[in-house]
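Possible regression after last week's pipeline update?

I re-ran a chain I had predicted before the update to compare outputs. Posting the input and the new output here so someone can diff against the archived version. Not blocking, just want to make sure nothing changed silently.
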Amino acid sequence: MYEERFYRRISRPAELVCYEVKHRETDLFCCTSCDLGPFIKERVLFYRHQLEEYIRLKPFFQESLVPVPKDRLAPPIIREMIEASAVIGVGPMATVAGAVAEFTGRDIMSLTEDFIIENGGDIYLRASAERIIQVHAGVSPFSERIGIKIHPGPQARGVCTSSGTVGHSLSFGNADAVCILGRSCLFADGLATCLGNIVKKKDDIADAVEQGQQFPGITGILIILGDQLAAWGDLDIVEL
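New output (post-update):
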């Protein structure tokens, strides 16, 4: 299923070259200091091949909604997905969008000082200048009216979002947006799914935030459900 990435039209840093890299279901929005599209496309094909071949041999990896056994012989992207999902308590495919974004980002770190790799709303970035990430939260009154300010720094970070009301990704909750900031994009992706599953009503928000802040490497949590908003951590929220 393809959905127009409408938010991409308003998120292009002027000093970076921005472009899309697509292959089958994978649809990356990339901003880098120079056009790295062909190289990124090659890396996307590489990781997709590893994922598809592993799923062909072990279909349960794609189907499971709970953690799967470790596999020390699996490719690194598979191993990290398995390890992260085991810690969080979700199936490994809950981390796949963040994993592709993060592994692709790692591959270009030596080629560009700044980069933004966005994959289905999950973002892996490194910024030498301030960035604002607009929060889309469906029909919530907060939707597209607030943003998360990312301050400059040498370390890459993940900013991942799960929603029970927007998009086609599987969620068992009703949150309009669960945004997770962390050092690992694939871990943040899985945790966003996990906390999103918890939030079925407004009374669940506080519990989800409390559970999320227990995980190492997580630096910020933002949860929106209707007219309710909760935030925790090193999170700079700005009005747009």
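Follow-up from reviewer: compared with the archived run. Residues 13 and 210 are 34 Å apart (CA to CA). Marking as no regression found.
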